[in-house]
Specification:
Elements: H1 3-9, H2 18-33, H3 43-66, E1 69-73, E2 78-82, H4 84-102, H5 107-110
Antiparallel strand pairs: 1-2
């Protein structure tokens, strides 16, 4: 069994629900189709990426369903406060981008190709 098959069949215990498993397998496919070679122990980092991406999706849904702000009872009257999901989502962005770079999933992390192959920027 190859490392990729072992990684796919053995997600870490941090990947617990259906959505997280789907994200784990989707990210694995995207990463490996990009030519990145993973080792078996990389599944833990991949699992964290998948779980965090799902958390971000849940936070986005919270914002979509309940809005950017909410009214809460203050000491004397109703007060409008920022939805805490917005702050939580913003805190997750940097770690997710860092993990995406680790797996060469951003344009800058893949580097530039020189020679006879042209980049997408050259085609514009």
């Amino acid at each position: 069994m190859s490392d990729i098959e072992r990684i796919k069949c053995n997600p870490p215990k941090s990947v617990v629900d259906h959505d997280e498993h789907q994200m784990y397998w989707s990210m694995l496919e995207d990463i490996t189709s990009n030519g990145v070679v993973l080792k078996y122990q990389d599944r833990h980092t991949l699992g964290e990426l998948a779980v965090t991406m799902c958390e971000m999706n849940r936070l986005r849904n919270e914002l979509k369903d309940n809005g950017e702000s909410m009214e809460v009872q203050g000491d004397r009257n109703m007060v409008t406060k920022r939805n805490p999901a917005r702050d939580a989502l913003e805190k997750l962005r940097s770690p997710v981008l860092r993990l995406l770079k680790e797996f060469q999933m951003t344009p800058s992390s893949r580097g530039k190709t020189f020679g006879s192959t042209t980049s997408a920027i050259d085609d514009v």
